[in-house]
Amino acid sequence: MIKAWTGNQIRSAEAPLLANGQGPELMQRAAHGLANAIVRGLLRRRGQVYGSTVAVLAGSGNNGGDALYAGAFLARRGAQATAVLTSARWHTEALAAFRRAGGTVVQAGQAGPALAGELAAADVLVDGILGTGASGGLRGAAAGLVAALQERISRPTNGTGPLVVACDLPSGVDADTGQLHQPVLRADLTVTFGGAKLGLLTDPGAGAAGRVWTVDIGLGPHLPEPALRRLDPGDVPALWPVPGRSDHKYTRGVLGIAAGSASYHGAALLAARAAVATGVGMVRYLGPGEICGQLNLLAPEVVCGSGTIAENRSQAWLVGPGAVADPEQAQRAREALASGLPVVADAGALDLLPAELGPHVILTPHAGELVRVLAGQGVSVDREQVEASPAEFARLAAGLTGATVLLKGAATVVASPAGTLFSQDNATAWMATAGSGDTLAGILGALAATVRPQDLDRAGIAAPDHFAAVAALAALVHGLAGTAAAAGGPTSAAAIGHAVPAVVRALLREPEQRPGR
Ligand SMILES: NC(=O)C1=CN([C@@H]2O[C@H](COP(=O)(O)OP(=O)(O)OC[C@H]3O[C@@H](n4cnc5c(N)ncnc54)[C@H](O)[C@@H]3O)[C@@H](O)[C@H]2O)[C@@H](O)CC1
Ligand SMILES: Nc1ncnc2c1ncn2[C@@H]1O[C@H](COP(=O)(O)OP(=O)(O)O)[C@@H](O)[C@H]1O
Ligand SMILES: [K+]
Predict the structure, then answer these.
(1) Where do the annotations place (6S)-NADPHX binding (predicted)?
(2) In angstroms, what is the span from residue 67 Cα to ligand 3's centroid?
(3) Are residues 213 and 269 in the same domain?
Protein backbone atom coordinates (compact mmCIF):
# COMPACT_ATOMS: atom_id res chain seq x y z
CA MET A 1 0.00 0.00 0.00
CA ILE A 2 1.34 3.41 -0.96
CA LYS A 3 0.46 6.17 1.46
CA ALA A 4 0.29 9.92 1.04
CA TRP A 5 -0.16 12.87 3.34
CA THR A 6 -1.09 16.51 2.97
CA GLY A 7 1.69 19.08 3.01
CA ASN A 8 0.55 20.20 6.45
CA GLN A 9 0.64 16.66 7.83
CA ILE A 10 4.24 16.31 6.67
CA ARG A 11 5.17 19.70 8.07
CA SER A 12 3.57 18.83 11.42
CA ALA A 13 5.53 15.58 11.48
CA GLU A 14 8.72 17.55 10.88
CA ALA A 15 7.92 20.10 13.57
CA PRO A 16 9.23 18.15 16.60
CA LEU A 17 12.42 17.32 14.73
CA LEU A 18 12.93 20.93 13.72
CA ALA A 19 12.33 22.00 17.31
CA ASN A 20 15.17 19.63 18.29
CA GLY A 21 17.50 21.38 15.89
CA GLN A 22 17.46 18.53 13.38
CA GLY A 23 16.42 20.75 10.44
CA PRO A 24 19.85 20.78 8.75
CA GLU A 25 20.13 17.01 9.11
CA LEU A 26 16.70 16.50 7.51
CA MET A 27 17.72 18.75 4.66
CA GLN A 28 20.92 16.77 4.11
CA ARG A 29 18.94 13.51 3.97
CA ALA A 30 16.50 15.05 1.50
CA ALA A 31 19.29 16.48 -0.65
CA HIS A 32 21.18 13.17 -0.71
CA GLY A 33 18.06 11.29 -1.73
CA LEU A 34 17.43 13.81 -4.49
CA ALA A 35 21.04 13.71 -5.70
CA ASN A 36 21.08 9.90 -5.69
CA ALA A 37 17.92 9.76 -7.77
CA ILE A 38 19.47 12.21 -10.26
CA VAL A 39 22.67 10.14 -10.39
CA ARG A 40 20.62 7.05 -11.26
CA GLY A 41 18.80 9.00 -13.96
CA LEU A 42 22.06 10.30 -15.42
CA LEU A 43 23.66 6.86 -15.39
CA ARG A 44 20.68 5.47 -17.28
CA ARG A 45 20.66 8.26 -19.83
CA ARG A 46 24.34 9.05 -20.29
CA GLY A 47 26.25 6.27 -18.60
CA GLN A 48 28.08 8.78 -16.38
CA VAL A 49 27.62 11.81 -14.14
CA TYR A 50 30.98 13.37 -14.93
CA GLY A 51 30.67 16.07 -17.58
CA SER A 52 26.87 16.21 -17.53
CA THR A 53 25.10 19.55 -17.25
CA VAL A 54 22.76 20.07 -14.33
CA ALA A 55 20.61 23.17 -13.88
CA VAL A 56 18.97 23.83 -10.53
CA LEU A 57 16.05 26.25 -10.28
CA ALA A 58 16.22 27.38 -6.65
CA GLY A 59 13.52 29.32 -4.79
CA SER A 60 13.81 31.21 -1.53
CA GLY A 61 12.81 28.50 0.93
CA ASN A 62 13.98 25.10 2.09
CA ASN A 63 12.91 23.53 -1.19
CA GLY A 64 15.56 25.66 -2.86
CA GLY A 65 17.97 24.61 -0.10
CA ASP A 66 17.41 20.91 -0.82
CA ALA A 67 17.93 21.47 -4.54
CA LEU A 68 21.11 23.53 -4.06
CA TYR A 69 22.68 20.92 -1.76
CA ALA A 70 21.82 18.23 -4.31
CA GLY A 71 23.40 20.40 -7.00
CA ALA A 72 26.56 20.72 -4.85
CA PHE A 73 26.72 16.94 -4.52
CA LEU A 74 26.45 16.53 -8.30
CA ALA A 75 29.09 19.22 -8.91
CA ARG A 76 31.46 17.28 -6.64
CA ARG A 77 30.78 14.23 -8.81
CA GLY A 78 32.03 16.19 -11.81
CA ALA A 79 28.76 17.63 -13.18
CA GLN A 80 28.70 21.18 -14.52
CA ALA A 81 26.11 22.66 -12.22
CA THR A 82 24.32 25.95 -12.64
CA ALA A 83 21.89 27.39 -10.11
CA VAL A 84 19.21 29.82 -11.22
CA LEU A 85 17.96 31.81 -8.24
CA THR A 86 14.33 32.65 -8.85
CA SER A 87 13.93 35.02 -5.93
CA ALA A 88 15.93 37.86 -4.37
CA ARG A 89 16.30 35.63 -1.27
CA TRP A 90 17.84 32.18 -1.05
CA HIS A 91 19.01 29.52 1.38
CA THR A 92 22.35 31.03 2.41
CA GLU A 93 24.19 27.90 3.63
CA ALA A 94 23.02 25.80 0.71
CA LEU A 95 24.07 28.41 -1.83
CA ALA A 96 27.48 28.73 -0.15
CA ALA A 97 27.91 24.93 -0.35
CA PHE A 98 26.88 25.02 -4.00
CA ARG A 99 29.47 27.71 -4.80
CA ARG A 100 32.19 25.86 -2.84
CA ALA A 101 31.50 22.77 -4.94
CA GLY A 102 32.22 24.82 -8.07
CA GLY A 103 28.66 25.61 -9.15
CA THR A 104 27.83 28.68 -11.26
CA VAL A 105 25.07 30.99 -10.06
CA VAL A 106 22.74 33.24 -12.06
CA GLN A 107 19.76 35.36 -11.02
CA ALA A 108 16.60 34.64 -13.02
CA GLY A 109 15.50 38.26 -12.73
CA GLN A 110 18.73 39.53 -14.27
CA ALA A 111 19.16 36.89 -16.99
CA GLY A 112 18.36 37.58 -20.62
CA PRO A 113 15.80 35.81 -22.79
CA ALA A 114 18.36 33.18 -23.80
CA LEU A 115 18.25 31.59 -20.31
CA ALA A 116 15.28 29.28 -20.97
CA GLY A 117 16.94 27.96 -24.11
CA GLU A 118 20.17 27.26 -22.24
CA LEU A 119 18.31 25.47 -19.44
CA ALA A 120 16.33 23.38 -21.89
CA ALA A 121 19.65 22.11 -23.28
CA ALA A 122 20.85 20.80 -19.88
CA ASP A 123 20.95 17.07 -19.16
CA VAL A 124 19.03 17.53 -15.92
CA LEU A 125 16.73 20.31 -14.79
CA VAL A 126 15.88 20.36 -11.09
CA ASP A 127 12.73 22.19 -10.03
CA GLY A 128 13.50 23.45 -6.52
CA ILE A 129 11.43 26.63 -6.65
CA LEU A 130 8.49 25.86 -4.36
CA GLY A 131 7.76 23.04 -1.95
CA THR A 132 5.18 22.53 0.75
CA GLY A 133 5.59 26.13 1.91
CA ALA A 134 4.09 27.52 -1.29
CA SER A 135 1.05 29.70 -1.27
CA GLY A 136 -0.53 29.72 -4.69
CA GLY A 137 1.47 29.39 -7.87
CA LEU A 138 4.68 30.78 -9.27
CA ARG A 139 4.92 34.52 -9.66
CA GLY A 140 7.29 37.04 -11.22
CA ALA A 141 10.56 35.92 -12.78
CA ALA A 142 10.01 32.28 -11.76
CA ALA A 143 6.63 32.19 -13.52
CA GLY A 144 8.08 33.74 -16.68
CA LEU A 145 10.99 31.31 -16.74
CA VAL A 146 8.84 28.21 -16.18
CA ALA A 147 6.34 29.32 -18.83
CA ALA A 148 9.24 29.71 -21.29
CA LEU A 149 10.56 26.27 -20.33
CA GLN A 150 7.10 24.73 -20.81
CA GLU A 151 7.21 25.89 -24.42
CA ARG A 152 10.69 24.54 -25.01
CA ILE A 153 10.46 21.19 -23.30
CA SER A 154 7.91 19.05 -25.05
CA ARG A 155 6.18 16.24 -23.22
CA PRO A 156 6.31 13.30 -23.52
CA THR A 157 10.04 13.69 -24.10
CA ASN A 158 10.69 10.46 -25.98
CA GLY A 159 14.11 10.55 -24.37
CA THR A 160 15.02 13.98 -25.74
CA GLY A 161 15.39 17.17 -23.72
CA PRO A 162 16.45 17.35 -20.10
CA LEU A 163 15.45 14.92 -17.39
CA VAL A 164 13.15 17.13 -15.33
CA VAL A 165 13.30 16.28 -11.64
CA ALA A 166 10.96 17.96 -9.17
CA CYS A 167 12.30 18.51 -5.67
CA ASP A 168 9.55 17.35 -3.25
CA LEU A 169 6.80 18.34 -5.72
CA PRO A 170 6.58 20.18 -9.02
CA SER A 171 6.35 23.88 -8.16
CA GLY A 172 2.76 25.01 -8.57
CA VAL A 173 1.20 21.64 -7.66
CA ASP A 174 -0.98 21.95 -4.58
CA ALA A 175 0.36 19.33 -2.18
CA ASP A 176 -3.07 18.88 -0.54
CA THR A 177 -5.38 18.62 -3.54
CA GLY A 178 -3.33 17.96 -6.66
CA GLN A 179 -4.59 21.22 -8.19
CA LEU A 180 -2.24 22.97 -10.60
CA HIS A 181 -1.40 26.62 -10.34
CA GLN A 182 0.05 27.28 -13.79
CA PRO A 183 2.72 27.52 -14.99
CA VAL A 184 3.93 24.11 -13.85
CA LEU A 185 6.98 22.37 -15.29
CA ARG A 186 5.99 18.74 -15.86
CA ALA A 187 8.52 16.45 -14.25
CA ASP A 188 9.77 13.07 -15.39
CA LEU A 189 10.50 12.22 -11.78
CA THR A 190 9.44 13.73 -8.47
CA VAL A 191 11.65 12.98 -5.50
CA THR A 192 9.51 13.62 -2.44
CA PHE A 193 10.69 13.76 1.15
CA GLY A 194 9.39 12.10 4.28
CA GLY A 195 6.24 10.72 2.59
CA ALA A 196 4.40 11.22 -0.69
CA LYS A 197 2.18 14.28 -0.85
CA LEU A 198 -1.50 13.73 -1.64
CA GLY A 199 -1.26 16.06 -4.64
CA LEU A 200 1.35 13.83 -6.29
CA LEU A 201 -1.00 10.83 -6.39
CA THR A 202 -4.19 12.56 -7.56
CA ASP A 203 -4.81 14.38 -10.80
CA PRO A 204 -3.94 16.78 -12.21
CA GLY A 205 -0.86 16.89 -9.92
CA ALA A 206 -0.10 13.24 -10.64
CA GLY A 207 0.05 14.06 -14.34
CA ALA A 208 2.68 16.74 -13.64
CA ALA A 209 4.75 14.68 -11.22
CA GLY A 210 5.87 11.79 -13.43
CA ARG A 211 7.27 8.91 -11.46
CA VAL A 212 7.17 9.55 -7.72
CA TRP A 213 10.07 8.43 -5.57
CA THR A 214 9.88 8.84 -1.79
CA VAL A 215 13.00 9.49 0.27
CA ASP A 216 12.81 8.39 3.89
CA ILE A 217 14.12 11.26 6.02
CA GLY A 218 13.08 9.70 9.31
CA LEU A 219 9.59 11.15 9.73
CA GLY A 220 7.98 7.70 9.98
CA PRO A 221 7.29 7.66 13.75
CA HIS A 222 5.80 11.15 13.59
CA LEU A 223 3.42 10.63 10.67
CA PRO A 224 -0.34 10.44 11.32
CA GLU A 225 -2.82 8.22 9.44
CA PRO A 226 -2.31 8.94 5.74
CA ALA A 227 -4.71 11.28 3.94
CA LEU A 228 -4.73 9.00 0.89
CA ARG A 229 -3.80 5.40 0.07
CA ARG A 230 -3.07 3.54 -3.12
CA LEU A 231 -3.36 -0.23 -3.36
CA ASP A 232 -0.48 -1.85 -5.14
CA PRO A 233 -0.32 -5.28 -6.75
CA GLY A 234 1.19 -6.73 -3.60
CA ASP A 235 -1.98 -5.85 -1.66
CA VAL A 236 -4.23 -7.93 -3.90
CA PRO A 237 -3.68 -11.47 -2.55
CA ALA A 238 -4.73 -10.45 0.98
CA LEU A 239 -7.95 -8.85 -0.26
CA TRP A 240 -8.98 -11.08 -3.15
CA PRO A 241 -11.93 -13.41 -2.47
CA VAL A 242 -10.14 -16.63 -3.35
CA PRO A 243 -12.71 -19.46 -2.97
CA GLY A 244 -12.01 -22.14 -0.39
CA ARG A 245 -12.71 -25.86 -0.48
CA SER A 246 -16.01 -25.52 1.35
CA ASP A 247 -17.33 -22.71 -0.86
CA HIS A 248 -20.19 -23.11 -3.29
CA LYS A 249 -21.73 -20.56 -5.60
CA TYR A 250 -23.98 -19.03 -2.99
CA THR A 251 -21.27 -18.69 -0.35
CA ARG A 252 -18.96 -17.01 -2.88
CA GLY A 253 -21.61 -14.39 -3.60
CA VAL A 254 -24.25 -13.61 -6.19
CA LEU A 255 -24.17 -10.33 -8.11
CA GLY A 256 -27.47 -9.05 -9.42
CA ILE A 257 -27.30 -6.73 -12.40
CA ALA A 258 -30.09 -4.43 -13.55
CA ALA A 259 -28.48 -2.80 -16.56
CA GLY A 260 -29.30 -2.05 -20.18
CA SER A 261 -32.48 -0.82 -21.82
CA ALA A 262 -34.10 -0.87 -25.23
CA SER A 263 -31.64 1.67 -26.62
CA TYR A 264 -28.49 0.49 -24.81
CA HIS A 265 -27.74 -3.21 -24.91
CA GLY A 266 -23.95 -3.05 -24.95
CA ALA A 267 -23.48 -1.63 -21.47
CA ALA A 268 -25.32 -4.57 -19.91
CA LEU A 269 -23.38 -7.12 -21.94
CA LEU A 270 -20.02 -5.53 -21.08
CA ALA A 271 -20.79 -5.22 -17.38
CA ALA A 272 -22.16 -8.75 -17.03
CA ARG A 273 -19.26 -10.34 -18.90
CA ALA A 274 -16.72 -8.39 -16.85
CA ALA A 275 -18.42 -9.56 -13.66
CA VAL A 276 -18.21 -13.18 -14.80
CA ALA A 277 -14.56 -12.68 -15.72
CA THR A 278 -13.79 -11.27 -12.27
CA GLY A 279 -15.04 -14.44 -10.60
CA VAL A 280 -18.33 -14.51 -8.74
CA GLY A 281 -20.61 -17.30 -7.50
CA MET A 282 -23.32 -16.29 -9.95
CA VAL A 283 -24.47 -13.34 -12.01
CA ARG A 284 -28.22 -12.76 -12.17
CA TYR A 285 -29.36 -10.42 -14.90
CA LEU A 286 -32.62 -8.48 -14.80
CA GLY A 287 -33.69 -6.50 -17.84
CA PRO A 288 -35.28 -6.60 -21.28
CA GLY A 289 -35.72 -10.12 -22.67
CA GLU A 290 -33.91 -9.20 -25.85
CA ILE A 291 -30.76 -8.36 -23.86
CA CYS A 292 -31.06 -11.62 -21.92
CA GLY A 293 -31.01 -13.52 -25.19
CA GLN A 294 -27.91 -11.75 -26.45
CA LEU A 295 -26.21 -12.04 -23.09
CA ASN A 296 -26.78 -15.77 -22.90
CA LEU A 297 -25.17 -16.25 -26.29
CA LEU A 298 -22.08 -14.42 -25.06
CA ALA A 299 -22.17 -15.57 -21.44
CA PRO A 300 -24.39 -18.62 -20.98
CA GLU A 301 -23.40 -18.74 -17.30
CA VAL A 302 -25.48 -15.63 -16.55
CA VAL A 303 -28.89 -16.45 -15.06
CA CYS A 304 -31.48 -14.24 -16.68
CA GLY A 305 -34.59 -13.26 -14.85
CA SER A 306 -37.33 -10.75 -14.51
CA GLY A 307 -39.13 -9.36 -11.53
CA THR A 308 -38.05 -7.23 -8.66
CA ILE A 309 -34.87 -6.90 -6.62
CA ALA A 310 -36.50 -8.58 -3.63
CA GLU A 311 -37.47 -11.59 -5.76
CA ASN A 312 -33.88 -12.18 -6.92
CA ARG A 313 -31.71 -12.88 -3.91
CA SER A 314 -28.20 -11.51 -4.36
CA GLN A 315 -25.31 -10.38 -2.17
CA ALA A 316 -24.83 -7.15 -4.12
CA TRP A 317 -26.40 -5.21 -6.98
CA LEU A 318 -25.07 -3.34 -9.95
CA VAL A 319 -27.58 -0.88 -11.33
CA GLY A 320 -27.55 1.76 -14.03
CA PRO A 321 -25.18 0.99 -16.93
CA GLY A 322 -27.13 1.62 -20.14
CA ALA A 323 -30.36 1.88 -18.14
CA VAL A 324 -32.04 5.02 -19.46
CA ALA A 325 -35.68 5.85 -20.15
CA ASP A 326 -36.73 2.45 -18.82
CA PRO A 327 -39.20 2.68 -15.92
CA GLU A 328 -38.73 -0.98 -14.92
CA GLN A 329 -34.96 -0.63 -14.67
CA ALA A 330 -35.37 2.67 -12.80
CA GLN A 331 -37.67 0.94 -10.33
CA ARG A 332 -35.10 -1.84 -9.82
CA ALA A 333 -32.35 0.75 -9.25
CA ARG A 334 -34.46 2.51 -6.63
CA GLU A 335 -35.29 -0.78 -4.95
CA ALA A 336 -31.64 -1.88 -4.90
CA LEU A 337 -30.55 1.48 -3.48
CA ALA A 338 -33.06 1.06 -0.66
CA SER A 339 -32.27 -2.61 -0.01
CA GLY A 340 -29.38 -2.13 2.41
CA LEU A 341 -27.25 -4.47 0.25
CA PRO A 342 -23.99 -3.33 -1.33
CA VAL A 343 -24.90 -1.50 -4.54
CA VAL A 344 -22.78 -0.20 -7.38
CA ALA A 345 -24.72 2.71 -8.89
CA ASP A 346 -23.43 3.74 -12.32
CA ALA A 347 -24.59 5.87 -15.23
CA GLY A 348 -28.43 6.03 -15.31
CA ALA A 349 -28.76 5.13 -11.62
CA LEU A 350 -26.83 8.24 -10.60
CA ASP A 351 -29.94 10.28 -11.38
CA LEU A 352 -32.12 8.18 -9.07
CA LEU A 353 -30.33 8.56 -5.75
CA PRO A 354 -32.46 8.80 -2.63
CA ALA A 355 -31.69 11.40 0.03
CA GLU A 356 -30.08 8.93 2.41
CA LEU A 357 -27.25 6.64 1.32
CA GLY A 358 -24.59 4.71 3.18
CA PRO A 359 -20.99 3.72 2.41
CA HIS A 360 -22.24 0.36 1.05
CA VAL A 361 -23.57 2.26 -1.97
CA ILE A 362 -20.73 2.92 -4.40
CA LEU A 363 -21.35 5.65 -6.95
CA THR A 364 -19.13 5.40 -10.03
CA PRO A 365 -19.39 8.71 -11.91
CA HIS A 366 -17.00 10.20 -14.41
CA ALA A 367 -16.38 13.94 -13.98
CA GLY A 368 -19.49 14.93 -15.98
CA GLU A 369 -21.72 12.63 -13.95
CA LEU A 370 -20.21 13.87 -10.68
CA VAL A 371 -21.36 17.36 -11.67
CA ARG A 372 -24.93 15.99 -11.76
CA VAL A 373 -24.52 14.14 -8.46
CA LEU A 374 -23.29 17.35 -6.82
CA ALA A 375 -26.09 19.37 -8.41
CA GLY A 376 -28.50 16.95 -6.74
CA GLN A 377 -26.90 18.00 -3.45
CA GLY A 378 -27.29 21.70 -4.24
CA VAL A 379 -23.65 22.21 -5.25
CA SER A 380 -23.12 23.97 -8.55
CA VAL A 381 -19.80 23.16 -10.24
CA ASP A 382 -18.80 22.47 -13.80
CA ARG A 383 -16.79 19.65 -15.31
CA GLU A 384 -13.62 21.75 -15.57
CA GLN A 385 -13.74 22.48 -11.83
CA VAL A 386 -14.12 18.77 -11.03
CA GLU A 387 -11.25 17.87 -13.35
CA ALA A 388 -9.06 20.56 -11.76
CA SER A 389 -9.48 19.03 -8.30
CA PRO A 390 -10.98 15.52 -8.50
CA ALA A 391 -9.96 14.39 -5.02
CA GLU A 392 -11.61 17.39 -3.44
CA PHE A 393 -14.91 16.94 -5.30
CA ALA A 394 -15.03 13.17 -4.85
CA ARG A 395 -14.66 13.70 -1.12
CA LEU A 396 -17.29 16.43 -1.14
CA ALA A 397 -19.75 14.17 -2.98
CA ALA A 398 -19.11 11.29 -0.59
CA GLY A 399 -19.61 13.56 2.41
CA LEU A 400 -22.85 15.03 1.05
CA THR A 401 -24.46 11.83 -0.25
CA GLY A 402 -23.18 9.48 2.48
CA ALA A 403 -22.14 7.03 -0.26
CA THR A 404 -18.71 5.82 -1.34
CA VAL A 405 -17.72 7.69 -4.50
CA LEU A 406 -15.42 6.32 -7.19
CA LEU A 407 -14.57 9.15 -9.57
CA LYS A 408 -13.21 7.84 -12.88
CA GLY A 409 -10.31 9.47 -14.66
CA ALA A 410 -6.71 8.87 -15.65
CA ALA A 411 -6.11 8.39 -11.95
CA THR A 412 -9.33 7.11 -10.39
CA VAL A 413 -10.05 8.47 -6.92
CA VAL A 414 -12.28 6.86 -4.36
CA ALA A 415 -13.66 8.70 -1.35
CA SER A 416 -15.46 7.15 1.56
CA PRO A 417 -18.07 9.27 3.33
CA ALA A 418 -15.73 9.19 6.35
CA GLY A 419 -13.30 11.24 4.24
CA THR A 420 -10.73 8.54 3.46
CA LEU A 421 -9.27 8.69 -0.03
CA PHE A 422 -7.80 6.06 -2.33
CA SER A 423 -6.26 6.82 -5.71
CA GLN A 424 -5.38 4.25 -8.36
CA ASP A 425 -3.18 5.10 -11.30
CA ASN A 426 -2.96 1.70 -12.98
CA ALA A 427 -4.79 2.58 -16.20
CA THR A 428 -3.60 3.67 -19.62
CA ALA A 429 -5.12 6.42 -21.75
CA TRP A 430 -5.93 3.72 -24.36
CA MET A 431 -8.75 2.82 -21.95
CA ALA A 432 -10.50 6.12 -22.66
CA THR A 433 -12.96 4.32 -24.93
CA ALA A 434 -16.72 3.82 -24.81
CA GLY A 435 -17.83 1.02 -22.53
CA SER A 436 -14.64 0.94 -20.49
CA GLY A 437 -16.64 2.27 -17.53
CA ASP A 438 -19.25 -0.49 -17.94
CA THR A 439 -16.46 -3.03 -17.68
CA LEU A 440 -15.25 -1.36 -14.49
CA ALA A 441 -18.80 -1.45 -13.10
CA GLY A 442 -18.96 -5.21 -13.73
CA ILE A 443 -15.61 -5.83 -12.05
CA LEU A 444 -16.62 -3.70 -9.07
CA GLY A 445 -20.03 -5.36 -8.81
CA ALA A 446 -18.41 -8.78 -8.69
CA LEU A 447 -16.03 -7.65 -5.95
CA ALA A 448 -18.81 -5.95 -3.96
CA ALA A 449 -20.61 -9.31 -3.92
CA THR A 450 -17.61 -11.42 -3.01
CA VAL A 451 -14.88 -9.57 -1.06
CA ARG A 452 -14.98 -10.72 2.56
CA PRO A 453 -15.14 -8.09 5.31
CA GLN A 454 -12.79 -10.15 7.50
CA ASP A 455 -10.08 -9.92 4.81
CA LEU A 456 -10.47 -6.14 4.74
CA ASP A 457 -10.26 -6.03 8.55
CA ARG A 458 -7.12 -8.15 8.51
CA ALA A 459 -5.56 -5.80 5.96
CA GLY A 460 -6.05 -2.96 8.46
CA ILE A 461 -8.87 -1.23 6.58
CA ALA A 462 -11.34 0.41 8.95
CA ALA A 463 -14.98 -0.68 8.56
CA PRO A 464 -16.24 2.69 7.25
CA ASP A 465 -13.65 2.42 4.45
CA HIS A 466 -14.36 -1.18 3.42
CA PHE A 467 -16.32 -0.28 0.31
CA ALA A 468 -13.79 2.37 -0.67
CA ALA A 469 -11.08 -0.30 -0.54
CA VAL A 470 -13.23 -2.64 -2.66
CA ALA A 471 -13.71 0.16 -5.19
CA ALA A 472 -9.95 0.84 -5.22
CA LEU A 473 -9.31 -2.86 -5.76
CA ALA A 474 -11.67 -2.83 -8.74
CA ALA A 475 -9.96 0.25 -10.21
CA LEU A 476 -6.57 -1.44 -9.75
CA VAL A 477 -7.64 -4.62 -11.56
CA HIS A 478 -9.50 -2.67 -14.27
CA GLY A 479 -6.40 -0.53 -14.86
CA LEU A 480 -4.05 -3.49 -15.03
CA ALA A 481 -6.43 -5.44 -17.26
CA GLY A 482 -6.75 -2.46 -19.59
CA THR A 483 -3.00 -1.98 -19.64
CA ALA A 484 -2.50 -5.66 -20.43
CA ALA A 485 -5.22 -5.62 -23.11
CA ALA A 486 -3.82 -2.48 -24.72
CA ALA A 487 -0.19 -3.62 -24.52
CA GLY A 488 0.83 -0.20 -25.79
CA GLY A 489 -1.83 0.04 -28.50
CA PRO A 490 -5.58 0.36 -29.03
CA THR A 491 -7.98 -1.75 -27.01
CA SER A 492 -11.72 -2.09 -26.41
CA ALA A 493 -13.99 -2.31 -23.41
CA ALA A 494 -14.67 -5.99 -24.14
CA ALA A 495 -10.95 -6.73 -24.41
CA ILE A 496 -10.40 -5.14 -20.98
CA GLY A 497 -12.93 -7.59 -19.53
CA HIS A 498 -11.33 -10.54 -21.33
CA ALA A 499 -7.97 -9.63 -19.80
CA VAL A 500 -9.23 -9.76 -16.22
CA PRO A 501 -8.78 -13.50 -15.44
CA ALA A 502 -5.15 -13.56 -16.57
CA VAL A 503 -4.39 -10.39 -14.62
CA VAL A 504 -5.99 -11.76 -11.44
CA ARG A 505 -4.17 -15.05 -11.88
CA ALA A 506 -0.88 -13.18 -12.16
CA LEU A 507 -1.69 -10.96 -9.17
CA LEU A 508 -2.29 -14.03 -7.02
CA ARG A 509 1.04 -15.54 -8.06
CA GLU A 510 4.39 -15.12 -6.39
CA PRO A 511 5.52 -11.48 -5.91
CA GLU A 512 8.14 -11.33 -8.64
CA GLN A 513 5.64 -12.53 -11.25
CA ARG A 514 2.97 -9.93 -10.49
CA PRO A 515 2.01 -7.34 -13.11
CA GLY A 516 2.59 -3.66 -12.38
CA ARG A 517 5.90 -4.42 -10.66
N1 LIG B 1 11.14 21.60 7.08
C2 LIG B 1 12.27 20.90 6.92
O3 LIG B 1 13.18 20.86 7.70
C4 LIG B 1 12.43 20.15 5.71
C5 LIG B 1 11.87 20.68 4.58
N6 LIG B 1 12.21 20.18 3.41
C7 LIG B 1 11.98 20.99 2.24
O8 LIG B 1 11.44 22.22 2.56
C9 LIG B 1 10.31 22.51 1.78
C10 LIG B 1 9.44 23.43 2.52
O11 LIG B 1 10.25 24.53 2.80
P12 LIG B 1 9.70 25.99 3.09
O13 LIG B 1 8.78 25.94 4.22
O14 LIG B 1 10.88 26.88 3.19
O15 LIG B 1 8.85 26.31 1.83
P16 LIG B 1 9.23 26.42 0.27
O17 LIG B 1 10.57 26.01 -0.04
O18 LIG B 1 8.08 25.81 -0.41
O19 LIG B 1 9.17 27.98 -0.04
C20 LIG B 1 8.57 28.91 0.72
C21 LIG B 1 9.19 30.24 0.31
O22 LIG B 1 8.68 30.58 -0.95
C23 LIG B 1 8.00 31.83 -0.87
N24 LIG B 1 6.77 31.63 -1.59
C25 LIG B 1 5.64 31.05 -1.16
N26 LIG B 1 4.73 31.00 -2.14
C27 LIG B 1 5.33 31.55 -3.22
C28 LIG B 1 4.90 31.77 -4.52
N29 LIG B 1 3.68 31.42 -4.91
N30 LIG B 1 5.76 32.32 -5.41
C31 LIG B 1 6.99 32.68 -5.01
N32 LIG B 1 7.45 32.51 -3.77
C33 LIG B 1 6.62 31.96 -2.88
C34 LIG B 1 7.79 32.13 0.57
O35 LIG B 1 7.86 33.50 0.77
C36 LIG B 1 8.89 31.37 1.24
O37 LIG B 1 10.05 32.16 1.29
C38 LIG B 1 9.74 21.15 1.47
O39 LIG B 1 8.96 21.13 0.31
C40 LIG B 1 10.99 20.34 1.29
O41 LIG B 1 11.50 20.49 -0.02
C42 LIG B 1 13.28 19.21 3.32
O43 LIG B 1 14.49 19.91 3.39
C44 LIG B 1 13.20 18.24 4.44
C45 LIG B 1 13.23 18.93 5.73
N1 LIG C 1 -6.96 9.17 -19.96
C2 LIG C 1 -7.25 8.07 -19.29
N3 LIG C 1 -6.27 7.32 -18.75
C4 LIG C 1 -6.57 6.20 -18.08
N5 LIG C 1 -7.83 5.73 -17.90
C6 LIG C 1 -8.84 6.43 -18.40
C7 LIG C 1 -8.61 7.63 -19.11
N8 LIG C 1 -9.81 8.11 -19.49
C9 LIG C 1 -10.73 7.26 -19.03
N10 LIG C 1 -10.15 6.24 -18.37
C11 LIG C 1 -10.85 5.13 -17.72
O12 LIG C 1 -11.79 4.56 -18.64
C13 LIG C 1 -13.06 4.38 -18.01
C14 LIG C 1 -14.09 5.24 -18.73
O15 LIG C 1 -15.31 5.16 -18.08
P16 LIG C 1 -16.59 5.99 -18.54
O17 LIG C 1 -16.23 7.42 -18.75
O18 LIG C 1 -17.69 5.68 -17.61
O19 LIG C 1 -16.87 5.37 -19.97
P20 LIG C 1 -18.17 4.63 -20.52
O21 LIG C 1 -19.33 5.31 -19.93
O22 LIG C 1 -18.09 4.80 -22.00
O23 LIG C 1 -18.05 3.19 -20.12
C24 LIG C 1 -12.85 4.72 -16.54
O25 LIG C 1 -12.55 3.59 -15.80
C26 LIG C 1 -11.66 5.67 -16.57
O27 LIG C 1 -10.95 5.65 -15.37
K1 LIG D 1 9.73 22.00 -6.21
Answers:
(1) 62-66, 131-137, 168, 267, 322, 366, 438
(2) 8
(3) no
